[in-house]
Amino acid sequence: MAFNHYAKIKAILMLQTPGWYIKIIHEPTASKKFNGEVRKYDHYYRMYDYQNQPIKYCKFQQLDRLSNILQIPAAELPVFE
């Protein structure tokens, strides 16, 4: 089974106190796929806990993939600028 960063985020969120949220960071970033392909993005997302502290390992680029694994519509995720 391949490593799935989004599944790891889901497991981390299950241990979090309610009140976490997602912030969009308007800075360029890139991710490397298993086949070596590099995908570039003009922004990324970072998750924070209810105390406004960054949640370790919860930085990602694709909101739709997170939405899918959490089984929450993307429009219902707590995303802030």
Please provide a brief summary of the model:
By secondary structure, the protein is α+β, with helices and mostly antiparallel strands.
Task: Lay out the secondary structure.
Elements: H1 5-14, E1 21-25, E2 29-32, E3 38-41, E4 44-48, E5 54-60, H2 63-70, E6 79-80
Helix pairs in contact: 1-2
Would you give an account of this structure?
With 81 residues, this protein is an alpha+beta fold. It has one domain (5-80). The protein is built from two helices and six strands, in the order αβββββαβ. Strand 2 and strand 3 (38-41) form a beta hairpin. It is globular, with a radius of gyration of 13 Å. The relative contact order is 0.27.
Major β-sheet profile: 4 strands, mixed
Spatial order of strands in the largest sheet: 5-4-1-6
Structural class assignment: alpha+beta
Q: What is the helix tally? A: 2
Order of helices and strands: HEEEEEHE
Task: Please give the oligomerization state of what you see.
Answer: single chain
Report, as a whole number of angstroms, the end-to-end distance.
Answer: 35 Å
Jot down its keywords.
two-stranded antiparallel ribbon, globular, alpha+beta, 2 helices, 81 residues
